[in-house]
């Protein structure tokens, strides 16, 4: 798949890091972790330990809350921390004077929609050299997580444990590093590894995901960087109304018999060019076009890992999945609201 994904990934920006003297202090490594490929996909998992038991969590870079699978909760006997139902007594005139047993959610909960999910307590949680004590996790709504070959991982690992750190992901080298924040703004010094070109891309956070502006064949689109998606996808209305694609044509042909979570057909299209601010260009990018989320396996891998929390989960305009991202080296500097990108050199 890699040969047909990108004909040219990084265009030269005229910068040469080797030609400049290092004047910025290098960041300190707070934690370092090796990444493990998910079989049959380009996605990566992170080895962790829950109460001393080794597990694999899917890398889901962003600011959402880390989740653990129901299968792992049952296996490890993790205790629930919040009672999900309460009996509320109503005023006179209501049936039996009570509303019965209903779900109660604190709308002020900082987890947002996650406030409706069960929470469990973990005595210890280890990533690389770092161990946290007495943690609370959300239990994933995805019942297949950890139980099927399409989702052979025990949870979703986001950046919520390391909010004060920047994150560097070397997909080619299969390494994840949490780094102390850098104050350097010279791209060739921020990017401290060997490189021939670097792009500087402004970021925003969109529903806990990193969002970047891109140009798709000359059309401006908001894209989400999603390391938990195996495939690049575009929402159908964006494909039709902005890109001018028409279903059931050679440019937007059905992707076999695939259906989304609403039973609507999924289509294939190859975008000739997707360009990022700062000079990164991806050519000949195959993408799936869909209306709703997908929770079933495609090419032996989940399509929308962390977006598939429910059948009604929102679909971004464009999701850049690991079929593109695995060829890059990423450095997210949250304090600068900037993503630095090089090729996986």
CATH topology: Cathepsin D, subunit A, domain 1
Specify the overall morphology.
globular
Beta content comes to 35-45%
Order of helices and strands: HEEEEEHEEEEEEEHEEEEEHEEEEEEHEE
- State the helix count: 5
Outline the structure in words.
The chain is mainly beta and 345 residues long. It has a single domain (2-78, 119-343), classed as Cathepsin D, subunit A, domain 1. The protein contains five helices and 25 strands. The strands form five sheets. Strands 1-12-11-24-25-13 form a six-stranded antiparallel sheet, with no helix packed on it. A six-stranded mixed barrel has the order 3-4-10-5-9-8. A hairpin with a 5-residue loop joins strand 18 (253-259) and strand 19. The radius of gyration is 22 Å and the shape is globular. The two termini are 19 Å apart. 40% of the residues are buried. Mean pLDDT is 80; it is low at 1-20, 85-114 and 296-312.
Topology:
Blueprint: H1 2-5, E1 29-34, E2 36-37, E3 44-50, E4 53-59, E5 67-68, H2 70-76, E6 85-89, E7 98-103, E8 119-127, E9 130-139, E10 155-157, E11 166-170, E12 175-179, H3 187-190, E13 199-202, E14 204-206, E15 209-216, E16 219-225, E17 233-235, H4 236-241, E18 253-259, E19 265-276, E20 281-290, E21 297-298, E22 301-302, E23 318-320, H5 322-325, E24 328-333, E25 338-343
Parallel strand pairs: 4-10, 5-9, 16-23, 17-20
Antiparallel strand pairs: 1-12, 2-3, 3-4, 3-8, 5-10, 6-7, 8-9, 11-12, 11-24, 13-25, 14-15, 15-16, 15-19, 17-23, 18-19, 19-20, 21-22, 24-25
């Amino acid at each position: 798949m890699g040969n047909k994904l990108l004909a040219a990934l990084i265009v030269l920006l005229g910068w040469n890091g080797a030609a400049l003297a290092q004047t910025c202090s290098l960041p300190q490594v707070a934690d370092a972790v090796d990444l493990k490929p998910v079989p049959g996909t380009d996605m990566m998992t992170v080895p962790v330990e829950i109460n001393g038991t080794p597990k694999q969590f899917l890398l889901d870079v962003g600011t959402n809350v880390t989740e653990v699978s129901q299968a792992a909760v049952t296996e490890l006997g993790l205790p629930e921390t919040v009672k999900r139902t309460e009996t509320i007594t109503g005023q006179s005139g209501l049936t039996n004077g009570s509303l019965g047993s209903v779900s109660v959610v604190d709308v002020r909960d900082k987890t947002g929609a996650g406030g409706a999910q069960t929470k469990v307590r973990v005595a210890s949680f280890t990533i690389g050299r770092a161990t946290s004590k007495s943690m609370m996790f959300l239990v994933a709504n995805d019942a297949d997580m950890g139980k099927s070959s399409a989702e052979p991982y025990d949870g979703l690992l986001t950046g919520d444990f390391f909010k004060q750190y920047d994150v560097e992901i070397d997909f080619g080298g299969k390494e994840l590093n949490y780094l102390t924040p850098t104050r350097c703004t010279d791209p060739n010094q921020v990017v401290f590894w060997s490189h021939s070109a670097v792009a500087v891309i402004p970021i925003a956070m969109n529903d806990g995901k990193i969002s970047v502006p891109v140009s798709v064949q000359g059309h401006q689109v908001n894209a989400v960087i999603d390391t938990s998606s195996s495939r690049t996808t575009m929402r159908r209305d964006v494909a039709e109304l902005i890109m001018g694609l028409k279903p059931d044509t050679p440019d937007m042909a059905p992707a076999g018999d695939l259906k989304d979570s609403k039973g609507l057909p999924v289509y294939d299209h190859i975008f000739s060019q997707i360009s990022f601010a700062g000079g990164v260009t991806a050519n000949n990018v195959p993408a799936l076009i869909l209306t709703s989320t997908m929770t079933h396996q495609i090419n032996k891998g989940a399509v929308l890992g962390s977006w598939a929390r429910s059948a009604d989960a929102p679909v971004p305009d464009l999701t850049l999945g690991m079929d593109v991202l695995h060829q890059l080296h990423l450095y997210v500097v949250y304090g600068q609201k900037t993503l630095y990108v090089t090729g996986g050199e």
